[in-house]
What does this fold into?
Amino acid sequence: MPPEGLTPDTAEDRPEQWPVRSSSAVWRGSAPFAVRLDQVAMPDGSAEFGRLVVEHPGAVVVLAVDDDERVLVLRQYRHAAGTRFVELPAGLLDVPGEDPVVTARRELLEEAALEAEEWTHLCSLWASPGLSEERVHTFLARGLRSRPDRGGFEPEHEEADMTAHWVPMSELLDGVLAGRLTDTPLVVAVLRYALHGAGPAAT
It folds into this structure.
């Protein structure tokens, strides 16, 4: 017989840490990422096994919505996927100790030349917990205004080729539901907003 179903009190993610017998670096470079190999033990000591872990500082994503319920999106090429995605402004938490909302403000300015008066935390998610430490914090930005100087930011590489566009929220939702839009942070942010708006934030 399968175990009984989870209850509202138990249907939640809970921190847990299994013993790590040893760790060794697989790759480290100038990028804010690294790869290590952990030798993990079962809690009862019955077995040990290796697991690769991508060390990642985390990231922020910004759902910027104007007074007409349009969303600022970016078109950007992503080499690993071989796709030019429709995305939201986003960036790494690469300043140690910085509050994610501060990073989000900077990324919105640099990538979209926008500032916002109102910031709401929508959710924080693990991007790929089977492999990576990356946690993505998503914010809703409202009360938008332009600031063309981008805070002195000069885009390069793929960012030098990206373009910004305004799209009605309803069209983004249609694209997500139809499978035309597949960037994970965009999909999560649009569905979260469509279901709950700027309601109570998920942690």
User: Anything to note?
Assistant: The beta strands are 20-28, 34-41, 48-55, 59-64, 70-78, 83-87, 90-92, 114-126, 135-146, 163-168.
